[in-house]
Amino acid sequence: MTGLTRNNLPLVSVIVPTFDNGRFIRPALESLLRQTYPDEKREIIVVDDGSTDDTSGVLKKYGQAILHIWQEHRGIASARNAGISCAKGEIITFLDSDDLWYEERLQKVVERFIENPDAGIVYHPIELIDGDGITIKKDFYAAFGYEVGLNGWVGKDIASGRIFSGGSSFAFRGDIVRTLSPLPEDIIRGVDYYMAVISSACAPAEYIPQILGKYRLHASNVTMSAGLNNKKRLTAMNKDFAHTRQKVIEKLSTLSVPCAYTLDFNILRRLQAKEMIFYHVLTGERVKAMKQIPALFKGSPPLRELFRGVAVSIMALFIPASIYPRIVNSYRLIKQVKIFVF
Q: 12 has which bridge partners?
């Protein structure tokens, strides 16, 4: 976006994938329509991924204020691909249909891109709310122990999970999004992570130290609620994220952009091994879990990851699968004090 100024504002494409979120999509869209960024410099693309509730009826009420795309249910990655394929913006950003943005969010994001035209990503902290919109934590990042204030080449920090890669808190330069698309449509969980890691290997990131949105935590969240006292969902979560890490490795291996290879793939492989250990233990295949232990220590991991590797090895060898969900809950407290990061 060379030469971009406040007198030459870019078009921003906001893509809103949705599936059976009729309860929440109205406040999400209202938060977009209240943005201080000029209406004529913004396009809202809502991709309904085959909803069976009243989502379609809600969307019809917005008429030409949004571009409404409907498709058969194929998952979040497919819905994002549909939105990206028709997005015209120099900046592309995503709002999950159960989340909200503060009214100055787009304006602040564009200002940061203008100030730093080489940036490929702009991101910011968000508030955590429940299904009724009541604040759970004012700062999601601080509450769950994520790093804040990191700018520049942050691929390692995103890949390792030190930076939260939530879709509603990230905005991307449009050319980068088009470089990494189409997104693999077999990704079930972690499409935000996939996009953020690959984008951060293509261009530096800029952090806005201001809460500009709200992340809604409720029973139907695909990821955030997945491990809460639920063995079945925890099993699926680990399998899905291990698959996503593999997709990231495969994509990064094929990119021909500058700095695409600065990320140490061993970071991803160590996380993938941890997730496969959890998956195998939870499915009663402890021998397979034990075979993954050497991969936890690939590539001379730093001290923090050594601690994690030892802890996960002990879990693989000795901890009954029945208490894994409780460990995941306890981990939230561990991460807040930053002892180590699973």
A: 42, 91
Range of the domain at 80: 12-216
What's the CA angle centered on 275, arms 304 and 17, to 5 degrees?
110
Structurally, the chain folds into a number of domains equal to 2
- Strand 205-207 and strand 135-137: the pairing is unpaired
Residues 67 and 196 in one domain: yes
- Domain membership of residue 33 (yes or no) is yes
Q: What is the dihedral of CA 121, 124, 127, 133, to 10 degrees?
A: -50
User: Is residue 203, in this structure, part of any structural domain at all?
Assistant: yes
Dump the DSSP string for 29-82: HHHHHT-SS-GGGEEEEEEE-S--SSHHHHHHTTGGGSEEEE--S--HHHHHHH
Tell me the C-alpha distance between 279 and 285, whole Å: 8
Distance CA 298, CA 239 (A): 20
Per residue in 215-263, pLDDT (tens digit) is 998 766 655 554 445 788 889 999 999 999 999 999 998 887 655 546 7
Distance CA 110, CA 6 (A): 9
Look at residue 140 in the predicted model and tell me its pLDDT: 87
| Phi and psi at residue 285, to the nearest 5° | -115, 65
- Let me know whether 168 and 245 are in one domain: no
User: Could you tell me which residues are beta bridge partners of residue 186?
Assistant: none
Cα–Cα distance between 151 and 203 in angstroms, integer?
Answer: 11
For residues 37 and 43, give the distance between their C-alpha atoms in angstroms, rounded to a whole number: 11
- Quick check: is 224 in a domain? no
Q: Which helix (H) or strand (E) holds 12?
A: strand 12-18
CA–CA gap between residue 159 and residue 161 (Å, rounded): 6
Would 21 be classed as within a structural domain? yes
**Which tens digit of pLDDT belongs to each residue from 301-316?**
989 889 989 999 999 9
**Are 135 and 271 found together in one domain?**
no
| Strands of 98-201, DSSP E | 100-101, 121-123, 127-129, 135-137, 170-173
Model pTM score:
0.91
Same-domain check for residues 53 and 171: yes
